[in-house]
UniProtKB/TrEMBL annotation:
It comes from the Eukaryota. This is Uncharacterized protein. The lineage of its organism: Eukaryota, Metazoa, Ecdysozoa, Nematoda, Chromadorea. It comes from Meloidogyne incognita (Southern root-knot nematode worm).
Length: 105
């Protein structure tokens, strides 16, 4: 007695149909991915062109200016905190001296 392929593997038409669907889905996905890749390459090329148009010296000057301004502001804030601390320290020393004077009398 011989077992036919269809009996051995079951209904092959359903398997073939599902396999064709998977292949078609994969081809469709590849096509979409290819289109997306093409679009992203175009965007990247446009960005490269825009970057080339930008004056690098101008960017460097602007960045240096911003760094200088930020540094100056930081130093001003530190100076103000130091001055506030000195004033507070002086005030505490004055109060301590007054308390000592009161204690001696």
């Amino acid at each position: 007695m011989r077992i036919s392929d269809e009996d051995h593997y079951g209904d092959m038409s359903k398997f073939k149909f599902e396999l064709r669907q998977k292949i078609d889905d994969a081809k469709s996905g590849c096509a979409l991915a290819g289109d997306e890749l093409k679009h992203k390459r175009e965007v990247l090329a446009n960005l490269d062109v825009e970057l080339f148009k930008v004056d690098q010296n101008q960017i460097t000057t602007e960045i240096k200016s911003e760094i200088t301004e930020t540094t100056i502001n930081i130093l001003k804030a530190r100076r103000k905190r130091l001055l506030d601390l000195k004033m507070s320290n002086h005030s505490l020393k004055t109060k301590l001296a007054q308390m000592k004077d009161m204690g001696q009398e």
